[in-house]
Design brief:
This protein is mostly helical. Helix content is 29%, strand content 0%. The chain is built from one helix and no strands. The mean pLDDT is 77.
């Protein structure tokens, strides 16, 4: 999950690009790996988060 990033007036980084790279790395790359608990990543790109 990511915030709006650079489309928001307070956005500091391109969170959509970062979340896409994280998705490819951890969801697609490790899709078959069993984990003992849920694994969640959140990306915030502004001082409000």
């Amino acid at each position: 999950m990511s915030c709006k990033g650079t489309t928001c007036q307070y956005g500091l980084i391109d969170t959509f690009d970062l979340s896409e790279r994280l998705h490819e790395r951890f969801y697609v790359g490790y899709h078959g790996v069993e984990l003992p608990h849920k694994f969640k990543i959140a990306v915030g790109g502004c001082p409000n988060m």
